[in-house]
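Complex 565.
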Amino acid sequence: MKKQWWHGRTAMQIYPKSFYDANGDGTGDLRGIIEKLDYIKSIGVDIIWISPIYRSPFVDQGYDISDYYQIDPGFGTMEDMEELLREAKKRDMYILMDLVVNHCSSEHALFKKALADPEGEYGQYFYFRKGKGNGQPPCNWRAYFGGSVWEKVPGQDDLWYLHLFAKEQPDLNWENPALRRRVYDMIRWWLEKGLAGFRIDAIINIKKDLSFRDYPADRDDGMCSVHNMLKHASGIGDFLLEMRHETFDRYNALAIAEAFDIKDGELPLFVGDDGYFSSIFDFSTEGLCKSRRGYFASGLPSVTEVRDTLYKSQAEMGDHGFFCNIIENHDEPRGASRYLPVSGQNDAGKKLLGLLMHMRRGMPFLYQGQEIGMMNYPFRNIDEIEDIGTLNEYRVALAAGLSEDEALAAVSLFSRDNARTPVQWSDDPQAGFTTADTPWFPVNPNYREINVRAQEKDPDSVLNFYRSLGALRKDPAYAETIVYGTFEPVLQEYSDLYAFFRRSAGKQLLVLGNMSEKEVTVPVPAESGDPHKDLKVVLNNLKHLEIQKNRITLAPWQGVILDVT
Ligand code: TEU
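Predicted structure with 1-O-alpha-D-glucopyranosyl-D-fructose bound:
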């Protein structure tokens, strides 16, 4: 694997609507990001991915783009964006935008032209098909946000357009070379402006099973999940390699894919020196205990299941390429609420999660607020939900026979809105996120205890521990091992315990993490260097560590990095 400019860096996702509101209108904006660049840098983060800021009707929070060449006025202006790029550069920071090109918004000019003349040139930019007759859509695929993937073209008898997500997000027809050229032009236009690259949205979906055939129904609605067609669609590589050559390669850009549903054995095609992308997110634990029937039938995985899944995914990647490692993003509940058992939802547990994420091979990719240990939002009422996906899951839960309270409890656990509440900057009103009386989304009531200002003052805070992790990755004594070292699990027979080596030439680190409320004593693995030499503690999330001869006792939720060279 060739070394790349971004390998030794740390990244953070910003969900701009909820990050920081500089102009007091209740919604986060670009100037808010500019104001907080020094804070972001202080965590050791140098790469920022900003969720969509293009012009959008916001049916899916900006993932429905009506103009790819404009900044949505809610976030500011193109001048603000240019200033952000300049200010980032001054600080040796890099900006990635979100590349949403599986679909656009139904308000996009191209789609409006297509609707006006589906048989004409612009109709070819989308998927229009005749139905089965009798008011039946062309096939029985269910959209990710519920209902059929087909929507009737207004004013037409039996003509439908395809949308794998909401009906306001018509899918773009990648089979049409003219569409692909337009997409590449747009990507280059942004890279010319000084973007360092993109996070690439829902990209697996761009290749369809063009037979548009029915698959067996998997719910009472008679429809089937889109995953069926993804299994049968083949040839996505041609599009992705073309995109890489036409765009990212020319700028040495960082292209990180959101790629669910990669077929077995195909991971090496997606990453690595000749892969379609620079990197992809490791979503291996995201789907654990998630049911295809919906949130209501889903549960939370055990600590050991999560651990074994992450180990497996590390082994699959090997030294072929680099994952982006996450515990949460804007589509997921908060990592501290999901991956920590309730008894571990404290500072030690949150630091441990951060430590384990930073020490896996790959690029640590934080999500805003993770560095202070933000938690899920305590929803009291379905009216508090904004997210189109969660509202659909609520309907699915009710249709399955759950009461309103049960349905709310089920969706609260997984709702994407958990991660979308405003960042908690201080214990001022509205957590210091905005000076407006009402932010676009309520702040989590725990902001009085969990906020940046309080944690800045406390040397033992979660925030300051994240800063130590960020600094360690850049420490010349450890950087090579942490960034490029091998990942080798040990002591796997202990449940609820993380134990792995990171090894590079002449240096080895042992990472231990006790993900349980019980103390645990483990042998120092035989592979650790000279048994007579003192183990050097590089980082510890608690004050002490009990080391006896060849044995280490970890307190509940304790995580340590030891230099065992
Ligand atoms: O998500 C794509 C996607 O496939 C998700 O629906 C994913 O399956 C789900 O979140 C797993 O829990 C991307 C964006 O990240 C999301 O915010 C958008 O709503 C979606 O694309 C449509 O653009």
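Residues 60, 63, 100, 144, 165, 201-202, 258, 260, 330-331 surround 1-O-alpha-D-glucopyranosyl-D-fructose (CB under 6 Å).
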